[in-house]
């Protein structure tokens, strides 16, 4: 038999509406319609999407704490055959006066002969019994064949997906198999086997079941081809979506109709039952009103993907049908509204805001704002939202269009966006009715791949006058393990258990489960809390128990009453009163008179519908010295809660009531409103900050108040980076050493100094703040301080904010010193050089010119260049023979090629005396006044001599660092001994200049250091009038004169008795000292 693909207009595979996948092998969801896997021409993205979604499943979801559990947890569960997709579709159904649940299982196996997985519908009893769910005998026959002359008709029921949509009305049940296939043959011609789909309508108690398949036809494929497929309904998939109006009109979506542009059928349920004859597989004259073929913008648009019914045009005689067209205009998507008359007339289309979001995947109707008019809800589960990092993430979005007014849905929609990537938020939407009995409709929204592990979630949103509350009231997480697709199917608005509150059905076809969440009775609390308008600290009309201290007190009165439907006759409530609740417990300003506590708890027993129960408690204001905040209101609250041992109830209404009072302020007038007039001026004695110097800074702020008292007045100083607070002093009496608090606010360092509570009218305060600054080199050319004088009750004023800017500069003081070692050199009177010798002492006398560069700071300099000019030749002859250069402190010099060209042996350190044979004579002669009788020394510099240029570099020189260069040279004696220089003395002067190219900072100095210096060697000769060797006769005469002088001296000393001294006694002496004395005298 030819395949369906052979009839494609392009000759390839048919573009069957796509089907999304959910984790699990080969699972097909109703996200997008399409034929079963064994149908030729399957849309190619079907398998790909199924695999991709398994890979892209991410963890997460809405992690918002529930605030009101309107639905009771845990739920009651129904279970179907594994792998049957039990829970794919569901609805409430009344059977024999009892409520029950109809559940579709489109992949269930049955006993139909020769059919594989045709699907089934289960009826589950309430309350559940031992076998709560049993399959309904809706379609029990196998594949069917009929012959009419040359025509042959076939139905194919394997994988027909019976139960893909399930809808109940007035005890009747409509269950559809959108993938049931049909083929018509006429000899060699055929229509091809295609998914026309079939719906089954069962009367109450299943006394009668009929089928309805308006897309079946006896036309052959060539007929459709000749008509350009304009009325081609072979791929209808009728019943892909279904809804029933309150008066029994069945609306069926067929997104594959008209060759995938989609169509809609409208037919009365009772008409199907009354006109069904069942004599042929082809029902000619099938009742129903289809939409007509549409323009090319609907190509592959899938009109009929979802349907809902409601009232939008204000004409109560007609109902409107809402139809999803999620792929219209190249995946842009649209939702259409039709009105039902003799024909289906399109009233309006609502465009999607985003391409490929699958806007219209789901539609639902509810009265959210309680105005009596239906509102429209639209799901776009593939909506991409932009994350904070700028990337887009598929989160899903719900759109709410409020009805009312003369125009059809005139207002822009309210939108709610999911938070879990790939969670398919808004893939299912259900009206819940009024769960909390507040007059507004509530809504359930499914995210079948949401949750921390992708098992699915359902969010409950409460209605209000402006629409839906933006935060879900309750979040239902999947109670089933694995990828259950919990929340794929939802149905609400029906009271299953008879407690007066609607219940919710949640399908989880991935786990073959259905969860029933029962609406809980709602207790509505009415609470009032009253306190005085103001608290006067001056009126002390209460006494603290056990202390005798008088305090300012006041009364706190609260009253509670409850109402509700189907609630117990006595309601137990836990009440909690909090005093000054916005403050930390230890900082609260008011306490209860009894017990000195800031809170009170008690259990109340309230009878619904009776007069309120009230409590009157006395509280007092603590002494003003015990707290600082006198301005902010004193907030009180009463919170009500149900005891934990009272399940099955929900507390709603005034469960948290707040009231506030204030402290009456001193000298603030009758209005108790102090308005200060704060002024601030600031300066700094520091004119500038130098990089590298001790970075100490002082700020001086002058604060004044020309108005009324300023409470909690404080000086706020915002510190620039690298600035640190040290200390502060003020002119406040008793607070000369001011207490300031350094802290960090939003990544910025600030200092807060308290200036009084209150800072009284007329106050003038001076604050000196000492600061230190580090890292000036990275701060730019200035640092700026923001100062603000503020208080709790002061209005913002430009007078109370000032800016102080301190320049940051780079500056360095540098010194260059030149010195000669030795500074004076005395030339010998005679010199005996050794021709060809390489010894230094045989060629000249060593001298050294030293230049020292000193950075006194405070800043560092870089790129220092030192240039030297050293006299080298005089009159074409060598004067200073350059030996070598010595450097220290990072100095690097360019060596001149004239350094030691004769390769003399350098063996002695600087300053050693020449070592030739005249050494002793030189020393003696040097002791004589040098140059005596000679002319003034002749200056020798670069003006009259040939100089050698030497260039040196220092990369960087920090504060107090030094760099040195020394030029080692010989006074060349051959030149100095020449005749023209024999009677000359010299001042040999070298010169040096330094410059700097930059400083290593962002801030450059106003000027760069530069300077110069000289080093002078004084070269002198011994006096020309000096004597030679002393004569011999002079020596003899000197010796004789010395002997004569010695003789005269000895004679004088003998005459004076010097030689008559007493000898000291020895060990062998026997005379006493007196006798020895006498004997000595006698001898004298």
From TrEMBL:
GO terms for cellular component: external side of plasma membrane; integrin complex. Gene3D superfamilies: Bicelle-embedded integrin alpha(iib) transmembrane segment, Integrin alpha, N-terminal, Integrin domains. Chain A, domain 2, ntegrin, alpha v. Chain A, domain 3, ntegrin, alpha v. Chain A, domain 4. One of its GO terms (biological process) is cell-cell adhesion. It is a single-pass type I membrane protein. Keywords: Calcium, Cell adhesion, Disulfide bond, Glycoprotein, Integrin, Membrane, Metal-binding, Receptor, Repeat, Signal, Transmembrane, Transmembrane helix. This is Integrin alpha-IIb. InterPro entries: FG-GAP, Int_alpha_beta-p, Integrin_alpha, Integrin_alpha_C_CS, Integrin_alpha_Ig-like_1, Integrin_alpha_Ig-like_2, Integrin_alpha_Ig-like_3, Integrin_alpha_N. The keyword Calcium applies. The gene is ITGA2B. GO terms for molecular function: integrin binding; metal ion binding. It comes from Pipra filicauda (Wire-tailed manakin). The lineage of its organism: Eukaryota, Metazoa, Chordata, Craniata, Vertebrata. Residues 668-808 form the Integrin alpha second immunoglobulin-like domain. Belongs to the integrin alpha chain family.
């Amino acid at each position: 038999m030819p395949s369906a693909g052979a009839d494609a207009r392009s000759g390839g595979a048919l573009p069957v509406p796509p089907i999304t996948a959910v984790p699990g092998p080969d699972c097909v969801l109703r996200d997008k319609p399409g034929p079963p896997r064994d149908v030729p021409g399957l849309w190619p993205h079907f398998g790909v999407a199924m695999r991709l979604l398994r890979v892209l499943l991410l963890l997460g979801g809405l992690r918002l704490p529930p605030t009101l559990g309107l639905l009771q947890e845990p739920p009651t569960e129904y279970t179907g055959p594994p792998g049957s997709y039990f829970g794919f579709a569901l609805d409430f159904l009344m059977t024999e006066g009892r409520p029950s649940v109809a559940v579709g299982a489109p992949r269930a196996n049955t006993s139909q002969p020769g059919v594989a997985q045709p699907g089934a519908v289960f009826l589950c009893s309430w309350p559940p019994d031992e076998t709560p769910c049993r399959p309904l005998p809706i379609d029990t026959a196998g594949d069917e064949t009929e012959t009419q002359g040359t025509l042959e008709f076939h139905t194919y029921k394997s994988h027909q997906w019976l139960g893909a949509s399930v809808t109940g009305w007035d005890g009747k049940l409509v269950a559809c198999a959108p993938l049931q296939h049909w083929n018509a043959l006429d000899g060699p011609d055929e229509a091809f086997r295609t998914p026309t789909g079939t719906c089954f309508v069962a009367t109450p108690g299943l006394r009668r079941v009929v089928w309805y398949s308006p897309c079946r036809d006896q036309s052959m494929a060539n007929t459709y081809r000749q008509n350009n497929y304009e009325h081609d309904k072979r791929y209808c998939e009728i019943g892909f979506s279904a809804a029933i109006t309150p008066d029994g009109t069945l609306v069926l979506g067929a997104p594959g109709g008209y060759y995938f542009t989609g169509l809609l059928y409208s037919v009365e349920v009772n008409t199907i039952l009354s006109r069904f004859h069942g004599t042929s597989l082809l029902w000619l004259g099938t009742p129903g009103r289809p939409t007509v073929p549409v323009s090319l913008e609907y190509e592959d648009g899938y009109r009929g993907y979802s349907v809902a019914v409601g009232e939008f045009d204000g004409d109560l005689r007609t109902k409107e049908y809402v139809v999803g067209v999620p792929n219209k205009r190249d995946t842009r998507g649209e939702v259409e509204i039709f009105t039902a008359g003799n024909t289906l007339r399109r009233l309006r289309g609502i465009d999607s805001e985003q391409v490929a979001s699958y806007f219209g995947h789901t539609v639902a109707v509810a009265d959210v704002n309680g105005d009596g008019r239906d509102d429209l809800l639209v799901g776009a589960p593939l909506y991409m939202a932009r994350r904070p990092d700028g990337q887009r993430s598929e989160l899903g979005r719900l759109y709410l269009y409020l009805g009312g007014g003369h125009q059809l849905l005139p207002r822009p929609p309210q939108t709610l966006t999911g938070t879990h990537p790939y969670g398919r938020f808004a893939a299912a939407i259900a009206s819940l009715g009024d769960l909390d009995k507040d007059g507004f409709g509530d809504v359930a929204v499914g995210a079948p791949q949401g949750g921390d592990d992708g098992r699915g979630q359902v969010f409950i949103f409460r209605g209000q006058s402006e629409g839906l509350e933006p935060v879900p009231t309750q979040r239902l997480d999947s109670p089933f393990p694995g990828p259950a697709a919990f929340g794929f199917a939802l149905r609400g608005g029906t009271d299953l258990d008879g407690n007066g509150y609607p219940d919710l059905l949640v399908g989880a076809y991935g786990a073959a489960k259905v969860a029933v969440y029962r609406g809980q009775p709602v207790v509505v609390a009415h609470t009032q809390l009253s306190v005085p308008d103001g608290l006067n600290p001056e009126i002390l009309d209460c006494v603290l128990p056990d202390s005798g201290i008088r305090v300012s007190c006041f009364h706190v009165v609260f009253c509670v009453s409850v109402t509700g439907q189907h609630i117990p006759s006595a309601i137990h409530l836990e009440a909690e009163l909090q005093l000054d609740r916005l403050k930390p417990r230890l900082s609260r300003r008011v306490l209860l008179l009894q017990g000195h506590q800031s809170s009170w708890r008690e259990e109340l027993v309230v009878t619904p519908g009776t007069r309120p129960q009230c409590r009157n408690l006395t509280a007092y204001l603590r002494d003003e010295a015990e707290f600082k905040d006198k301005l902010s209101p004193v907030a009180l609250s009463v919170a009500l809660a149900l005891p934990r041992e009272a399940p099955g109830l929900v507390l709603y209404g005034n469960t948290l009531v707040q009231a506030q009072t204030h402290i009456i302020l001193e000298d603030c007038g009758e209005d108790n409103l102090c308005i200060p007039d704060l002024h601030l001026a600031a300066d700094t004695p520091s004119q500038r900050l130098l990089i590298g110097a001790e970075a100490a800074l002082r700020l001086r702020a002058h604060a004044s108040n020309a108005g009324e008292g300023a409470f909690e007045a404080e000086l706020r100083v915002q510190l620039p980076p690298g600035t640190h607070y040290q200390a502060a002093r003020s002119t406040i009496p008793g607070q000369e050493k001011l207490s300031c608090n350094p802290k960090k606010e939003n990544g910025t360092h600030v200092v807060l100094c308290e200036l009084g509570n209150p800072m009284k009218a007329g106050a003038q305060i001076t604050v000196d703040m000492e600061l230190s600054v580090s890292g000036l080199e990275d701060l730019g050319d200035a640092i700026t301080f923001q100062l603000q004088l503020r208080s709790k009750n002061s209005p913002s004023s430009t007078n109370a904010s000032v800016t102080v800017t301190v320049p940051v500069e780079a500056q360095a003081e540098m010194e260059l010193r030149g010195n000669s070692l030795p500074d004076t050199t005395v030339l010998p009177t005679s010199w005996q050089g050794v021709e060809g010798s390489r010894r230094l002492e045989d060629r000249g006398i060593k001298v050294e010119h030293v230049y020292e560069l000193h950075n006194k700071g405070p800043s560092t300099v870089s790129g220092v260049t030192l240039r030297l000019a050293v006299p080298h030749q005089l009159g074409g002859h060598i004067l200073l023979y350059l030996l070598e250069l010595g450097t220290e402190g990072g100095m690097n010099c360019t060596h001149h090629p004239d350094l030691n060209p004769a390769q003399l042996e350098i063996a002695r350190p600087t300053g050693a005396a020449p070592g030739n044979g005249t050494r002793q004579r030189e020393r003696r002669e040097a002791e004589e006044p040098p140059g005596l009788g000679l002319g003034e020394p002749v200056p020798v510099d670069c003006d009259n001599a040939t100089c050698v240029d030497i260039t040196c570099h220092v990369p960087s020189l920090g504060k107090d660092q030094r760099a040195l260069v020394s030029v080692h040279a010989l006074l060349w004696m051959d030149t100095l001994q020449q005749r023209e220089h024999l009677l000359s003395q010299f001042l040999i002067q070298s010169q040096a200049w330094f410059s700097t190219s930059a400083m290593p900072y962002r801030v450059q100095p106003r000027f760069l250091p530069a300077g110069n210096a000289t080093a002078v060697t004084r070269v002198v000769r011994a006096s020309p009038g000096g004597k030679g060797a002393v004569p011999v006769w002079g020596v003899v005469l000197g010796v004789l004169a010395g002997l004569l002088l010695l003789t005269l001296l000895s004679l004088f000393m003998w005459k004076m008795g010097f030689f008559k001294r007493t000898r000291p006694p020895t060990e062998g002496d026997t005379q006493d000292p007196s006798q020895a004395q006498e004997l000595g005298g006698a001898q004298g």
